[in-house]
Amino acid sequence: MTVYVDLVFLTNLAVDGTVLLLTAKVRKLRPKRRRVALSSALGAAYAALMFLVSVPYLYSFAGKLLVSVLMLLCAFGYGGALRFVRLFVAFYVVNFATLGGVIGTSFLLARSGSPWEGMTLTEDGGLLLGWQMQLGLFAAAFGLSAWLFRGASAATEQQMKLEALLVDVVVTVDGERWSCRGLVDTGNRLYDPLTRIPVMMMEASIWKDKLPSGWAQRIQNEPADRLIAELDGSGEAEFPWGDRLRLIPYRSLNGVSRLLLAIKPDSVAIVLGSQERIYRRVLIGMDGGSISPDGTYRAIVHPDLGMTDSTPSIPSQPA
């Protein structure tokens, strides 16, 4: 078998560089390019050295770990034991994920036949698994694995950020309670212009059994003042929340001024883990559609009502 050491070096240079950059992305680091290039060259030289020098201890498990440590130190520096351990773990997670994708693609595209054809028994009872892949296919499979891993990492990171902003919302009106998941939206700065009471949003369908017939659907398309105008004396008797309704002026994204139908609850509890805040000075705007496309949350929480893990629990606000 003919081995072209220069191709081994260049292939490992590209692979090691990609793995190091993915590791940096996972750990949210921005290493200098020349340090990543130098670290990649170190790993590529180590791979090429296997075909030039016969030093068994150099290619042992301890030797490979030592080279990995040197590559990480060269690319990212030390920065403390905990930071380095996290870098080391991320580095090998990326390695296993991308290499696993390459091997999986190889076996997927392998010709059919007996699985024993690719296995060889050694004289001392060992088992060798044959694995062959053309350079072009290897590059394509590795690139696809790296791209998929990067996409999965980005999606996981985005989901973690979203989870950090999700809270449990419990609304109390006339002694009855409704609960749902809410998203703390730092861009929501909607207040009642007269009282400066913060306004959060919630899907009207949560209260469809309490609202007048059809309101949960009509709120999305019909003016809020028209709906309130339909409530006469008899209507208010059937709808006990008539005195809780409010009209909040706001400006939509296209610059058109509109009125938002809101309700004044007895209280709103914002719960995150074991922490809870109770607010009584708050209005809830009704949204006639679905606030979250996938149903993850059904309320938009005003940032004045939000809570983080470091926020201590406080007593109820006065009305």
Automatic annotation (TrEMBL):
<dbReference type="GO" id="GO:0004190">
    <property type="term" value="F:aspartic-type endopeptidase activity"/>
</dbReference>
<feature type="transmembrane region" description="Helical">
    <location>
        <begin position="36"/>
        <end position="59"/>
    </location>
</feature>
<feature type="transmembrane region" description="Helical">
    <location>
        <begin position="6"/>
        <end position="24"/>
    </location>
</feature>
<dbReference type="Pfam" id="PF03419">
    <property type="entry name" value="Peptidase_U4"/>
</dbReference>
<dbReference type="InterPro" id="IPR005081">
    <property type="entry name" value="SpoIIGA"/>
</dbReference>
<dbReference type="GO" id="GO:0006508">
    <property type="term" value="P:proteolysis"/>
</dbReference>
<feature type="transmembrane region" description="Helical">
    <location>
        <begin position="65"/>
        <end position="82"/>
    </location>
</feature>
<keyword id="KW-1133">Transmembrane helix</keyword>
<protein>
    <submittedName>
        <fullName>Sigma-E processing peptidase SpoIIGA</fullName>
    </submittedName>
</protein>
<dbReference type="GO" id="GO:0030436">
    <property type="term" value="P:asexual sporulation"/>
</dbReference>
<feature type="transmembrane region" description="Helical">
    <location>
        <begin position="129"/>
        <end position="149"/>
    </location>
</feature>
<feature type="active site">
    <location>
        <position position="185"/>
    </location>
</feature>
<keyword id="KW-0472">Membrane</keyword>
<feature type="transmembrane region" description="Helical">
    <location>
        <begin position="89"/>
        <end position="109"/>
    </location>
</feature>
<keyword id="KW-0812">Transmembrane</keyword>
